[in-house]
Amino acid sequence: MSKPLDLLQGTLDMLILKAISLGPLHGYGILLRIQQISKDRLTIQQGSLYPALYRLEHQGWITSEWGESENNRKAKYYRLTPSGKRKFQSEAQEWNRMADVIAGILGTKPEEV
Amino acid sequence: MTFWSRFTSWLNATLRRSRMESDMDAELRFHIDQQTAHNIAGGMSPKEARRDALIQLGGLEQVKEAIRDTRWQTRLDNFFRDVRFSLRHLRKDRRFAFGAILVLALGIGASTAIFSVVNAALLRPLPYHDPSRLVWADEFMSHFNNWMVPNPEFTNWNINNHSFEAMLAYNLGTESNLTGAGEPERIEAIGVTANFLTVLGIQPALGRSFLPEEDKPGGPLVVILTDALWRRKFSADPAIVGKSIDFDGQAYTVVGVLPVNFRFPDKTLTPECLFPSQLPAKVDWTSKSLSLARVIGRLAPGVSISQAQADLATLAANSNSAIPAAFVHMRQGLQVQVIPLQQKIVGDVRSALLVLLLAVLFVLLIACVNVANLQLARMAGRHKEMAVRAAIGAGRARLLQLLLTEGICLAAIGGAAGLLLAVFGVWLLRISLPATIAQIGVISIDRPVLLFTFAVTCFTAILFGLAPALRASNPDVIDALKDGARSTGLSLHRGYRAALVVAEFTLAFVLLIGSGLLIRSFMRLSSVVPGFNPTNVLTVNTDLPMAKYSTNQQRQAFFVQIVDRLRGLPGVRSVGLTTQLPFAGRWSSSTFLLEGQPEPPPGTKPTVLTSEISPDYFQTLYIPLISGRAFTLGELDLDSPVVIVSATFVKRFLPDGSPLSKRIRLGATGSQWNTVVGVVGDIHNAGLEHDTDPLVYLPYSGKIHAKFASIVLRGEQDPRNLISAIRTQFADVDPLQPVFDIATMQQRIDDSIETPRFYMSLLTLFAALALLLATVGIFGVISYFVSQRTHEIGVRMALGAESSQVLRLVLGQGLVMVLLGLTLGLGSSFLLTRYLANLLFDISPNDPLTILCAAALLALVAFAACYVPARRAARVDPLIALRYE
Fold this sequence. Notes:
Chain A is an alpha+beta fold. Chain A contains four helices and five strands, in the order E-H-E-H-E-H-E-E-H. Chain A has helices spanning 12-21, 27-37, 46-59, 82-107, and strands at residues 5-6, 25-26, 42-43, 62-68, 74-80. In chain A, strand 4 and strand 5 form a beta hairpin. The relative contact order of chain A is 0.16. The two termini of chain B are 58 Å apart. By secondary structure, chain B is of the alpha+beta class. In chain B, helix 6 (94-123) packs antiparallel against helix 12 and helix 24 (754-788) packs antiparallel against helix 26 (803-832). In chain B, the strands form four sheets. In chain B, strands 1, 2, 3, 4, 12 and 13 form a six-stranded antiparallel beta sheet that branches. A six-stranded mixed barrel of chain B has the order 5-6-11-8-10-9. The chains are: A alpha+beta, B alpha+beta. At the A-B interface, helix 3 and strand 5 of A face helix 2 and helix 4 of B.
């Protein structure tokens, strides 16, 4: 297996939004979900996850409530707000456009110039 | 977000903080439990699993702190908490806080006060409409070695120029006796062109400006009063416009009153009323009333100063053809100069003020360095505190913020206290400022000054706060927390602090040299013997109005009678009369010719100062008679063919043989020849800093130019208590005749050196402050050095070091700093003292004696400051010092 990639600057927020767009999750769950979707190819600094969650909540993209975890413990669950959903969609679009452009640039062959 | 919603949100956040904290706790605990469970499932032992979970999270407290930081309330909160903490900290360390605040307040206060003068004199725009376009136009006539613009030249410029929107002129003024409004008084009056107020952009407060028809030769007699005169003599009569008042016995109609804040655009003149100058409308170089004008122009939009100067120079050259042949040679090498009006007005005080500002900023810098030094010493003691803070989650930025907040608190309190000091300082300056500066503008603490104070305060906070904060915010946690560890930052701090002390000494040395130079220069200046004895001499000026005293005999009779009456007063030793009182800024001169010399071409005759005196004048002032005799009473006549000359006159013009009985002709060809009957000692007529001028004395004639004369009176004791008796005598002779400007001779001499004395006093004050602060600085550092190395000193002494060796070791530390400071200071002073050159009298800016004295003083004081802690070190008891470990 290749070495896991470090997260690009500024993409953590997007990944969090994506993770909980699939359903409400607690913090640890978000970590697992991202690792699972990325097939362990990404490492996330746990220490930066929680500050990011609080920041997103403060900005109103996500909201939280206390619920029961799968092993019957009290856990804090995060879900997307409507504005968070819109935010995520536009961020995702931006990202895809950017990725296309970059990929296009990197894929250019000498004879195409 | 509006401020209000921010505030309510902050309030809510504060109220909910405990809830948020417990939520955060629970959430992170859940996370760690989950991770631990996951790890155990992966095969770790429970203990190891939990440890790994914590490491993966990156530290519980650190994450919590990072979460708290996501809230801006937290940041604001932190700031307020830091402020509270800093204030508490400062309260606990009162000695430090008091010392630091006092030092900062002194520095900030003094610089604010000086800046308020700089602001008033150099920065504030002149109080006229669009002052940046106002310029001063002048002509230099090398023939007279002087700047002067004859009025036909002004008219020539005014009519023919292509560079100015408008030009105005005024004359050098006359003094007129105002009668009919209370006690008679002499009023300084200046003739101005009709457009004077319009060009400057000033609206009269009452009435109107002059009309063009009032500004023609023979036009109606009209006057505009200043606000001060209007209030003083006419009780602010609102119906004054249109009324008639008497100047020199002639009736003038008041047409206007100037606004209260009006300032005449020439600081050497302080007129109380304006007349129309009534210059001829056409360029007329043959007019008998040729006079001098001062010229101000308003540049047309888009015209540069150099263009205007070229324009006027061309016009001046053209006018040579219109000038009578006899004058043309006087205009050889004529130069025209156009400069900004602001520069003309502040030119000569500019460099002095900048020197003072630089000096006071040096003092401020030293103050900052001192506080930085104190801060560093405190930081060394707080090493452990910083390490603990870092260990429980404070990042470097957070520590930096805390430490800088302390600096800001100190600076803010220091700045506020400094502003209070500055208010006091400005008051002090207002009453002690020499007239040369005070006349430029009113000094006050206005918005630019407040801005300056604010900027300086921020600057100081950064200057003394940042360096210590940068050092202390990066503690080596492990090392510092080890029990009993000596602070590792010490040696670093010591080098840094020593560098600060060296900087202090460098600055202090430069200031000491500067003030030493001014002190020595002032001592030389004030020890110049004026050529007469001013003790117990009172001087009184008076000016006889033409209307009433129209003949020579009348004027002579008046003064003879006054001198006689004053001589009769009890306590009066002798009384003299002169038309050229020394130190009063009066000039009357005449061309002259020595008998036997060929008549030079017109206009090339040398000129000499002349003074018309009474027989007792020399005796009254104690001016020594070198040879010959004084005048007799019988010679007080129009045509007595006698003169007395000064020693310099003899040296320069009659060097061969006895000067007595040689003959001199004063004034125009055809005047009578006067025989030299006496030679007297020189006097410094123009001021102590000027060389003695050749002077020719004549018997008081009562001629027209001699209507203005001064009485000198020598009392048995302090003559000031004779003033009321003198006034009574004048009133007895002529109740309508004003006596003005009564002052002792000593007062006049003191006034003439008021400006250098002011510069010297201020710079000396700053140098003393700098010396004090630098001394405190080196004392602090050496004491600290000793207290930190008590252990080492103990070991040395236990191994057999003598206490004298210890003394030398400690003193050596101080000596290195002082020597470095002196060397750097010497170098800087060579660079800086030349800016003092035009403030110095008879002394070189690199005067070795001054530099040596300053160095000796500094070294002596530094030695004393180091000796006290060094003695303490030498007395260290090795037993106690080693046990202390």
